Amino acid sequence: MESTMLSESQMNKLGELLSGSLSLGHWRTIFINTNFREYDNSNFRDAVRFGNDDLSHTCMRITEEILTSDEENIKHFWNIQDLRNIVRRKDPELYRFIEDYISGDAQKTVTTSPINNTNENIYNVLKDAEVLLEKRGPGEAYDRIHTALHGTLKLMCDKSGIVRKDNNRVDELLSLINNHLKAKKDSERNKVVFEMLRSAIAILNKTNELRNHHSNAHPNDGLLNNADARFAINLIRSIMSYVDDLLG
Questions:
Q1: Is CATH 1.20.120 the classification given to domain 120-247?
Q2: Cβ neighbours of residue 26 under 8 Å, at least 6 residues apart?
Q3: Around Cβ 167, how many Cβ atoms within 10 Å?
Q4: What UniProt keywords are attached to this protein's entry (predicted)?
Q5: Alpha-carbon distance 77 to 26, whole Å?
Q6: 83 and 22 Cβ atoms separated by less than 8 Å
Q7: Listed residue (68, 77, 73) closest to 17, CA to CA
Q8: Which helix (H) or strand (E) is 110 found in, with range?
């Protein structure tokens, strides 16, 4: 299966939701606009009219095939107001995910990764995070991003000769790096921006709290929603990228 903006389970859920809800006219519109006219046949029309037992499975299969062929086809589904209302009412999380994609918000996550301070393990963690961002959304990816941050800051310390402890938290590691950079007295570094980096230590302290209590790192009831997770991920990645540039 080719990569799509929806995971297989999300596509199946969408197809299941639509199986008993969309009219033949709506299905015909989707088939025409996505160039899947072969499904507009008597067997499918009868299945929709009479609610055949295999209708749900058929709709899941058709939805998956249409979206797998071209992820942009989701827009042809989403142009149907009745369809949007059905998904919003029956699966708010799926509705928000698709809405984010359609509006472009799903693409608004900072993607810059460390260039100078990385290794295979960090790269693999970041790669896992990218997959989760694409398939499951920012809320599911937050723990992986935080893990990459921790590994990157440790590596930055080691490569720069900064003494650290194995159990240092991310905010403690950034504090050590900050002191190291301050001692270098780089005349080209903007003082105000560097003060912002010191303030980022408090931000990273909060990222620990989010990881421990609002991510998949531990069993939690209150996972981050996509907007909050995206905001936290963007902050983490921006800090990682800036410190990576400073240390070289």
A1: yes
A2: 80, 82, 83
A3: 6
A4: Plasmid
A5: 9
A6: yes
A7: 77
A8: none
Ordered per-residue pLDDT tens for the chain, 248 residues: 444 567 888 888 999 998 878 888 999 999 999 999 999 999 999 988 888 888 999 999 999 999 988 888 998 999 888 888 889 888 888 888 888 777 765 454 545 556 567 777 777 777 777 777 777 778 778 888 888 888 989 999 999 999 999 999 999 999 999 899 888 776 666 778 878 888 888 888 888 788 777 776 666 656 778 788 888 888 888 888 888 888 87
**Torsion of the alpha carbons at 15, 17, 18 and 20, rounded to the nearest 10:** 120
Alpha-carbon torsion (142, 148, 154, 159), positive or negative: negative
Does this model's pTM top 0.85? My answer is no
Whether 179 contacts 170, CB under 8 Å: no
Token pair 């790096």 is found at 177
Place of tokens 């589904």: 77
Q: Which two tokens stand for residue 177?
A: 């790096």
Read off the tokens for 13.
């859920």
| Alpha-carbon gap, residue 133 to 156, rounded angstroms | 25
Question: Cα separation of 33 and 47, whole Å?
Answer: 21
Distance of alpha carbon 50 from its chain centroid, rounded? Answer: 39
Domain boundaries, the chain: 8-107, 120-247
